[in-house]
From TrEMBL:
Keywords: ATP-binding, Nucleotide-binding, Transcription, Transcription regulation
InterPro entries registered for this protein in UniProt: AAA+_ATPase, AAA_lid_NorR, GAF-like_dom_sf, Homeodomain-like_sf, HTH_Fis, P-loop_NTPase, Sigma_54_int, Sigma_54_int_dom_ATP-bd_1
Protein name per UniProt: Sigma 54-interacting transcriptional regulator
Regions annotated as coiled coil: none
Keyword Nucleotide-binding: yes
Annotated ranges, domain Sigma-54 factor interaction: 403-632
């Protein structure tokens, strides 16, 4: 046996037998005590057992049994050549575990570089090579398997390339000092065939398993209705089929410009959860280099983490991958047909690309179905809410079928409506209560390009402050107690239409900030939601308060006021457009006589005079109610009587007639308080209440009202 400092190679021979066995033994010594005939017998037995091997365990057993009959044999290892210039263990002799179990097991799962000065030489050689373990170690070769052989006390090992045709499957290492080269070649030829069969069989089993998983996955995914179920199905298939974990799925937002997180799994980020969450929470521009690359690619993109880090772009996500010790990260486009719907990110150092592709195709379908479902639900809700509006509109249609009034003041209002309607500019309608602000808001909407969608109205004074935010911006399920379902807000409902914010002066200060943000950025977040939603909404706001005074008093934000006051339209009080009173009264007679079912043809001159001289604190609404009441009470076809409150004024006289004037101080006080209460819409205390206007505490006003016998009917009877 030659154990020179270098390896000894046996020259290739032309006289090999079919099994690779020949009687000639030019370099290797005899096969111990096995005679030539027994050698043949041995090889036949050995090879038939190897040929029968269907699994790694079979092959291992066959090699172990065969080698038992070679006295100098000390163990075997078969390494498999991988595509990435490495080898991995295929089988090893379990008896080596008695030497150093931990090291053997470590090697069993390790990837060894192919070019280590030994493996590469064996694979390049046509014939088996013989190495001295001690010499290789002394030379500085630190291949870990040399340490095993050394610990096992084996100094001479032979390495034989395992090939079928041109394909290199691996290397057969034998710890044997004394073996006949043709016999070794015969053994290796059979091991090569067995190995390639086992690999093919394993591949087949793996594919069948994958196909079964994919089939189950597509079945499961078709039945999925919730995001949580989708997440668990995806995690399950990735873990079971690819043995990897999902990092995050991002979907492209409605605006088509950004990607938002859709699903993510923090189970693989260890104690870096907070960092991971902060990275995930961010919206990503679709042109961001890493995402753009994935979205432009047909299949998965492999990012080499150290190469990405070396670019010095200070990408936070790359630093994160580095911190997890990842060598590679995978970004996969999620697509339906030619349309990108998002990206899927995996943290793994290795992945089966074809399988990943088919999983991603299924995930794309599932996500796009879920997104479509979400949209359908939103549309459904929009339709439902829309039909409420429609009903409301139909119910009150007679109220805004036309604006009545042709006086100079209303002519000015009509001109302003015409100027602003076609644009999307914000309009601020001001004027006392009942002057027709809502009517004008609808007129602007109906004259605008948005007229085919319903105008959405929010009365900021009618909602409790804690509900206004959810009413305006919507909420996600569970956002607060009572949020049992997701609900879209009025802003989203008014998408591509007009949002009429009535009584804007009543909006609480804290909400004014949020409204300002939406008006500035045209995007909002639902209460309890993370996603930002773009909205194209035209705003018309209305108030009967003097907003400038409210700003000065610190009750209204100046910045919001300037945002709203883009195009102000002031509705004059009815007392300043007396010329409109008769046409308005006639219009209401037509409307109510039809509605009530009484044929009323007109108003007496006396009543008309009374109407024209009245102060109309409740403006057109008050006139409307007075006409309705008069029709109900009238006994013939002409209205001959109206019951106006005490504040009538004679024509051309600003002073009130003495008969109508209260006689005592108490009466003066009573009617003054009633007047103030009317102007404050019956609100007694709080912001905008009568007590505030009278500059007395709410409790004092209450007791005064009690003392003076002021009843609700006194100030609500307009
Ligand atoms: N010029 C008008 N022509 C016909 N009807 C009118 C006119 N102005 C107001 N009205 C009617 O008066 C009533 C009150 O009008 P509207 O609700 O638009 O007033 P407003 O200024 O918005 O009141 P508030 O400030 O109290 O909300 C409605 O029934 C409306 O149809």
């Amino acid at each position: 046996m030659k154990t020179s400092t270098t390896n000894t190679a046996a020259p290739a021979r032309k006289t090999m037998m079919v099994a690779g066995y020949t009687n000639e033994r030019p370099h290797f010594p005899d096969l111990g005590n096995i005679t030539e005939a027994r050698e043949k017998r041995f090889l036949l037995d050995f090879c038939s057992e190897i040929a029968a091997a269907r699994s790694r365990a079979d092959l291992s057993r066959a090699l172990r049994n065969g080698l038992k009959r070679i006295p100098s044999a000390g163990g075997f290892v078969v390494q498999q050549v991988q595509n990435d210039q490495t080898t991995t263990n295929f089988i090893y002799d379990e008896s080596l575990e008695t030497v150093d179990a931990a090291l053997v097991r470590e090697l069993a799962t390790a990837k060894l570089p192919l070019r280590d000065g030994l493996q590469d030489r064996v694979l390049q050689s046509e014939i088996p090579l013989l190495f001295s373990v001690n010499t290789e170690i002394a030379r500085g070769n630190d291949a870990p398997y040399l340490r095993i052989w050394k610990k096992a006390g084996i100094n001479i090992v032979t390495g034989t390339a395992l090939r079928t045709g041109d394909h290199q499957h691996g290397i057969l290492w034998l710890g044997v000092a004394d073996i006949d080269i043709p016999l070794l070649q015969g053994i290796s030829a059979h091991v090569s065939i067995a190995m390639s069969n086992i690999i093919a069989h394993e591949e087949l089993v793996r594919r069948e398993r994958e196909a079964a998983f994919l089939h189950a996955f597509s079945r499961d995914i078709a039945a999925i209705r919730t995001k949580a179920d989708l997440q668990s199905a995806i995690s399950h298939v990735l873990h079971n089929v690819l043995n990897i974990r999902l990092a995050v799925i991002r979907t492209i937002d409605e605006d088509g410009a950004t990607l938002s997180p859709y699903l993510f799994d923090e189970s693989m980020v260890g104690d870096q959860v907070e960092w991971f969450r902060s990275l995930i929470a961010r919206k990503i521009d679709i042109h961001h280099p890493l995402s753009a690359l994935v979205l432009q690619n047909d299949g998965p993109v492999v990012f080499n983490v150290s190469e990405e880090a070396a670019k010095g772009d200070e990408e936070p996500i790359v630093r994160f991958w580095e911190s997890l010790g990842m060598e590679q990260a995978f970004g996969v486009p999620l697509r339906m047909g030619d349309t990108n719907i998002g990206t899927l990110w995996l943290l793994t150092n290795d992945v089966n690309m074809p399988v990943l592709n088919s999983i991603c195709a299924q995930i794309s379908i599932a996500i796009s179905n879920m997104l479509a479902n979400g949209k359908i639900l939103a549309y459904k809700q929009q339709l439902e809410n829309g039909s409420d509006y429609l009903r409301e509109q139909i119910k009150t249609i007679y109220n805004f079928s036309g604006i009545v009034g042709s006086g100079a003041q209303m002519q000015k209002v009509y001109r302003l409506i015409t100027q602003v309607a076609a644009s999307s500019s914000t309009v601020l309608l001001t004027g006392e209560t009942g002057t027709g602000k809502e009517l004008i808001a609808r007129a602007i909407h109906n004259a605008s390009p948005r007229k085919n969608r319903l105008m959405v109205k929010v009365n900021c004074a009618a909602l409790p402050p804690h509900l206004i935010e959810s009413e305006l911006f919507g909420h996600e399920k569970g956002a607060f107690t009572g949020a049992i379902d997701r609900r879209i807000g009025k802003f989203e409902l008014a998408a591509n239409s007009t949002l009429f914010l009535d009584e804007i002066g009543e909006m609480p200060l804290e909400l004014q900030v949020k409204l300002l943000r939406v008006l500035q950025e045209r995007e909002l977040e639902r209460v309890g939601g993370k996603a930002t939603i773009k909205v194209d909404v035209r705003i018309i706001a209305a108030t009967n308060r003097n907003l400038e005074a409210e700003v000065r008093a610190g009750r209204f934000r100046a910045d919001l006021f300037y945002r709203l006051n883009v195009f102000p339209i002031h509705l004059p009080p009815l007392r300043e457009r007396v010329e409109d009173i008769e046409p308005l009264a006639n219009a209401f007679i037509t409307k109510f006589s039809k509605h009530i079912g009484k044929r009323i043809s007109g108003i007496s001159a006396k009543v008309l005079k009374e109407l024209k001289s009245y102060h109309w604190p409740g403006n057109v609404r008050e006139l409307e109610h007075q006409v309705e009441r008069a029709i109900l009470l009238s006994e013939d076809a002409t209205i001959r009587e109206v019951h106006l409150p005490d504040r009538t004024r004679p024509e051309n006289d600003d002073a009130l007639p003495s008969a109508a004037f209260p006689q005592t101080l108490e009466q003066i006080e009573k009617s003054y308080i009633i007047e103030v209460l009317k102007r404050c819409g019956g609100k007694i205390s709080g912001v905008g209440g009568a007590a505030e206007a009278l500059e007395i505490p709410g409790t004092t006003l209450h007791s005064k009202m009690k003392k003076l016998g002021i009843l609700k009917a006194d100030y609500f009877n307009i």
